Amino acid sequence: MVVKKKKTLTRLAQGRPPLATPSRSMTRKASRTLINKHHQLEKTRIRAIRIGDKETEAKITAELESLGGLDHYQKASLQGQSIDRGGDTSKVLMEWLPLDELKKQTQPLQMLEVGALSTRNACSTSKIFNVEHIDLNSQEPGIQQQDFMERPLPENGKGPFDIISLSLVLNFVPDALGRGAMLLRTLSFLRADTDTTITTEPLFPCLFVVLPRSCVDNSRYFTDDKFDELMAALCYTRVRSKKTQKLAYSLWRRVAGVVKEGLTFPKQEVNPGKTRNNFVMTLKGPKT
Ligand SMILES: C[S@@+](CC[C@H](N)C(=O)[O-])C[C@H]1O[C@@H](n2cnc3c(N)ncnc32)[C@H](O)[C@@H]1O
């Protein structure tokens, strides 16, 4: 028997979702090139904004537009989601949940899917969830065009959702502080009552996160331990975890506790190495 040697992922781009087989609209290579280029340009644009380099910012924005902007990027990502390539990440979440118990609920659970490309993924069609889909750029009438970071906070301070999905969204956010801020913000929309007994094993309220595997396995600044540490500071505990060759899936239950005012989580090198990437999520002060 020939044993296939597992490839070690060295670049963040290698961890992105499986891409399409050649199609009339976009070949596998073309969609991969587009996704990588988009991520690269976004990073450069954010750097330019940070240092006030208006000229570079305008140049990169124009370049992003010439590539077809977010819309084209999403179409490339959608190819990675298509069912025949097993790309729907929400299938893993469905495998993790006690579906029989959840089907007995009189009301469907409330789910917020941030960064939704389709309304037909496994969670959305399961009937277990009432899913609200949002994205920066809506690809379907059932997806509300909304920036999660600008979404109005619940009026009574009580989050309505049992579960939030951030599948391949945090790595889309171009800067470390923005990613941390997004994680922190999930708390405002999740139910705060952590002792609800929806399932025999306490799983809700929770956050489903999918990242390219190289974000936790090959970063100079971020590892699974760091992720646990950051999430613990945000009152989340890991209840499920799975890795495929390219992706790292995790489910985090919100636990009782108060997130410290002005909590910081700095960038620290934990895995030096020339071939590693710079992915990290950080928190800085009260405004993050
Ligand atoms: C790589 S796609 C992932 C899509 C899908 N969730 C998946 O797992 O394949 C990332 C998506 O996140 C969306 N996104 C990023 N930041 C967002 C934000 N702040 N609010 C809403 N959507 C966001 C982008 O517009 C993009 O469509």
TrEMBL record:
**Positions of the UniProt region annotated as Disordered:** 1-27
Q: Which superkingdom?
A: Eukaryota
Q: Where in the cell is it found?
A: Nucleus, Nucleolus
Major localization class: nucleus
Q: Name one GO cellular component term.
A: nucleolus
Q: Which UniProt keywords apply?
A: Methyltransferase, Nucleus, S-adenosyl-L-methionine, Transferase
What Enzyme Commission number(s) appear in the record? 2.1.1.-
Protein family per UniProt: Belongs to the BMT2 family.
Q: Which HAMAP family match?
A: BMT2
**Name the record gives this protein:** 25S rRNA adenine-N(1) methyltransferase
